[in-house]
Amino acid sequence: MLSSLLYRCGLRGWLLHITSLSSIGLCITLWIRAKTVDQDERGNAENRALFVGLWPPMFWLIGDAVERQERHATRARGRAARALPWR
Question: CB neighbours (10 Å) of residue 2?
Answer without folding.
Answer: 10
